[in-house]
């Protein structure tokens, strides 16, 4: 699994993106994303200010922001203490820190 410091793309806090994003590697989102995220072998890092409205299918995801949609992660979902997920999650490994929703 790639480490969070091995980010290959970044959507900053003041960024808004709508559509379908298919990627490899690991990306970090700190802005607002509406649509579908697909990376069966890639990872996703959602910062504290991130807001995702849509479904995702990724290898692994670390959530510190907010997700309104379903998560399918082939390796792992990590909900940090300030992370919020409003939807279904499917993953073989789920880590939930105290305070996560």
What does this structure look like?
This protein is mainly β. The chain is 0% helix and 59% strand. It contains no helices and eleven strands. The chain has strands spanning 9-11, 16-22, 26-29, 32-46, 51-53, 56-63, 66-68, 71-79, 84-86, 89-90, 94-96.
Indicate the topology.
Blueprint: E1 9-11, E2 16-22, E3 26-29, E4 32-46, E5 51-53, E6 56-63, E7 66-68, E8 71-79, E9 84-86, E10 89-90, E11 94-96
Parallel strand pairs: 1-3, 2-4, 3-4, 4-5, 4-6, 5-7, 6-8, 7-9, 8-10, 8-11
Number of helices: 0
Taking the alpha carbons of the first and last residues, their distance comes to 24 Å
Uncertain regions spanning at least 5 consecutive residues: none
Strand content: over 45%
Give the helix/strand class: mainly beta
Helicity level: under 10%
Biggest sheet overview: 11 strands, parallel
Mean model confidence by pLDDT: 93
Gyration radius (Cα, Å) is 12 Å
What string gives the helices and strands in order? EEEEEEEEEEE
Question: How many β-strand stretches?
Answer: 11
Principal-axes shape call: globular
